[in-house]
Every structure is written in structure tokens, then in C-alpha cells.
């Protein structure tokens, strides 16, 4: 496990506020639902103020994106979030590019970083694999992520363990700014996703996370997959030569992945799932997992279709959320500019 001492500012306290963003990559898959989106819906019902963003500025870090596809993906992601229970009355849900202060603060924070710091960022090598040249946006996107959170004085950042380096950079950026100009930003701390969602893997390759970046679409279940598509994908999911259903992520990662998925769908522990299906072999067990997925996704898919039937309304929701977000962002940027000499004292 990746560990690090979380920095705490003892001179100034900040009210708890969670910030999280998701890229508009089209319809989310079950990994998104159980990893990020379910955490959002739990947080919005807690006593922590929540600011959630569709981070379209991060989607243009690669220069050859489709304009038409990006616009459609923003609509689809908005509809998907609403269908999964994200409630604009309980949180701020907005489109990143509608709040120009993100780019302004990112520039100020970029000027406090070095190329060497960003070159050694863990995910950069993975993201630039196979590229002849590295787009500047890929170097700078971790700082934009830091600006996303710090602009709202975010104290809590929902992440998986693989995203911890991003939170650590946010802490470093906040500390660098605060030491030079005075305390403006909190030091964000990670809210780690725990439980089976951490182990939800690709159905065809359990060494990889369930992700849209994997070349085989059969390895993930998208929220808009038809019942037949869901059954087919789970039926073809990788298992092993042992017929008994057990939960052992180390020795039997493929079968454990199905159990993890089933436990998330049924909201039961992996051991409870295994105890309840001892009469099934893995072949018959797959059918049970598939039916659970079909049942859980049916109401989500119904709401998704309803939201997508009125795309103009989706933009109105984002516009309203963006106005609320700008109220916070404007105050923070003004404070940052004032202490750093770019506005009257």
C-alpha cells in the first residue's frame, strides 16, 4: 500500500468540502459506478459539502479529440450521473470549462512547479506510451487537477489508491503556495475507495482495471449495455479450472473478480456471496451474476433514457451548477491573486 504523511495546516481551519471530477468519456461502466459515482452519492448525503465536476478541460489534453463526440459525451455523462443518483439539489454539479477560474488558478500554480517535478509524475510515462511527442497538456494536467480541488478549498478528495500521487501533488502545490504567499489553501486529504470496488477488474483480463482504455470492450459492462450484452460479457468472463466459487484475489483473481462484482451489485460481502452460492459451479454462477447486473441496471437505464430525451435540460443543469461553482471559485481566485500581488491588498 502506498502511504505518506498527510500534511495538516494547524494555523488555519477549513470547513470540510469534497471535490471530485470525472472525464466525459461517454456512458460510464460498472467500474465507474461502484468506484466513483457511488461514493459521490454517499458523500452528498453526508455532512460534507460536495462539489462534483465533469472535467472536460482534461479531455482536451490530447489534441486530436472529436468536437462532436466531446459535446455528446458531456451530455451522456451528465445524464448518467443523474440516472445513478447524483442530485444537483444535494451537491454542486457543474462543467469545468464553464468556470474559467480553473485555468487561471492552474497557470498561477504551474509557475510554482518545475518541469522535473512533472516529468517524474508516475502516470506520465503510461499516458505517453507510444507517442512520438508529449502534448504539453499531459505535462500540465496534474497541476490542473490540483487547481480543480484547491479552487474550491477542497479538504477531501475521493480517490482510489492508484490516484494517491495526484493527491500528494495537490498537497505539495498547496504547501508551496501557502509557504510563499500565506495560507490560502487547505492540504487536501484522500478519501480512499474501500471494499470490493477497489478490486473490480477487467472481465477478460483481471490483471487490469475495468476501464475504457482497454482495447477489448467485452472486458467491461457499460451502464447502457442491453441484457443480452450483459449476459454475453459475463458468460465469456475469464475464470479458471476450479468449479467451486471462492473469493481469493491472489490465487483466483478471475473468479474473485466476479464475486467482487456480485457483492457490489447485491450490497453484500464477498464471503456472504460465496456462502450463498456453494451449490453452483462457476458456469452457473456466471448466470446468477448476470441476472443481478441486469436487475440493478434496469432502473438506471430507464432514468438514463429519460434524461437523454431532453438534452437541453442537461445543459441547464450544468449551467446552474456552474454559476454556483463560480461563486466559490471567484472568491478563491481573488484571494490567491491578492496575496500573490496580482490584486490590491
TrEMBL record:
UniProt entry keywords in alphabetical sequence: Aminoacyl-tRNA synthetase, ATP-binding, Ligase, Nucleotide-binding, Protein biosynthesis
EC number: 6.1.1.2
Name of the protein described by the UniProt record: tryptophan--tRNA ligase
Organism this protein belongs to: Ornithodoros moubata
NCBIfam families membership: trpS
Subcellular location: Mitochondrion
UniProt cross-references to Pfam families, sorted A to Z: tRNA-synt_1b
Family: Belongs to the class-I aminoacyl-tRNA synthetase family.
Superkingdom as given in the UniProt entry: Eukaryota
One Gene Ontology cellular component: mitochondrial matrix
GO biological process terms held by the UniProt record: mitochondrial tryptophanyl-tRNA aminoacylation
Any one GO molecular-function label of the UniProt entry: tryptophan-tRNA ligase activity
Spans annotated as Disordered: 205-225
Keyword ATP-binding set for record: yes
Amino acid at each position: 500500500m502506498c502511504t505518506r504523511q498527510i500534511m495538516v495546516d494547524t494555523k488555519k481551519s477549513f470547513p470540510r468540502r469534497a471535490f471530485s471530477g470525472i472525464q466525459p468519456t461517454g456512458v460510464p461502466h460498472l467500474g465507474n459506478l461502484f468506484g466513483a459515482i457511488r461514493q459521490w452519492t454517499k458523500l452528498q448525503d453526508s455532512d460534507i459539502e460536495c462539489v462534483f465536476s465533469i472535467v472536460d478541460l482534461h479531455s482536451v489534453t490530447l489534441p486530436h479529440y472529436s468536437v462532436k463526440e466531446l459535446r455528446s459525451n458531456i451530455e451522456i455523462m451528465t445524464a448518467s450521473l443523474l440516472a445513478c443518483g447524483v442530485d444537483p439539489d444535494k451537491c454542486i454539479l457543474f462543467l469545468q470549462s464553464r468556470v474559467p477560474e480553473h485555468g487561471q488558478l492552474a497557470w498561477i500554480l504551474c509557475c510554482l512547479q518545475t518541469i522535473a517535478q512533472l516529468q517524474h509524475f508516475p502516470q506520465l510515462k503510461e499516458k505517453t506510451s507510444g507517442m512520438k511527442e508529449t502534448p504539453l497538456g499531459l505535462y500540465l494536467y496534474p497541476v490542473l487537477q490540483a487547481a480543480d480541488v484547491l479552487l474550491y478549498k477542497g479538504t477531501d478528495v475521493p480517490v482510489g489508491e492508484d490516484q494517491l500521487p495526484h493527491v500528494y501533488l495537490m498537497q505539495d502545490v498547496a504547501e508551496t503556495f501557502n509557504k510563499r504567499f500565506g495560507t490560502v489553501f487547505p492540504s487536501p486529504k484522500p478519501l480512499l475507495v474501500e471494499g470490493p470496488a477497489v478490486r473490480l477488474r477487467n472481465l477478460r483480463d483481471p490483471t487490469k482495471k475495468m476501464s475504457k482504455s482497454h482495447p477489448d470492450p467485452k472486458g467491461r459492462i457499460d451502464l447502457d449495455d442491453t441484457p443480452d450484452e450483459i449476459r454475453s460479457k459475463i458468460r465469456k468472463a475469464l475464470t479458471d479450472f476450479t468449479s467451486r466459487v471462492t473469493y481469493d484475489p491472489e490465487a483466483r483473481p478471475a473468479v474473485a473478480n466476479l464475486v467482487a462484482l456480485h457483492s457490489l451489485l447485491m450490497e453484500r460481502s464477498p464471503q456472504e456471496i460465496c456462502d450463498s452460492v456453494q451449490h453452483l459451479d462457476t458456469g452457473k454462477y456466471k448466470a446468477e451474476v448476470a441476472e443481478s447486473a441486469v436487475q440493478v441496471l434496469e432502473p438506471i437505464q430507464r432514468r438514463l433514457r429519460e434524461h437523454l430525451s431532453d438534452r437541453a435540460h442537461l445543459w441547464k443543469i450544468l449551467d446552474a451548477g456552474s454559476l454556483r461553482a463560480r461563486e466559490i471559485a471567484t472568491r478563491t481566485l481573488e484571494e490567491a491573486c491578492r496575496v500573490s500581488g496580482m490584486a490590491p491588498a
